[in-house]
Amino acid sequence: MYKIKDLYDLEKTIAAPLFDGKDYPWEVLDGIKEYILELGPTLPTDEFDNPAEGVWVAKDATVFDSAYLGSPCIIDHGAEIRQCAFIRGSAIVGKGTVVGNSTELKNVILFDSVQVPHYNYVGDSVLGYKSHMGAGSITSNVKSDKTLVVVKNGSEQVETGRKKVGAMLGDFVEVGCNSVLNPGTVIGRNSNVYPLSSVRGVVPANSIYKNKEEIVIKQLESKHV
Question: Where would you tag: which of 12, 48, 191, 210 has the fewest CB atoms within 10 A of its CB?
Answer without folding.
Answer: 210
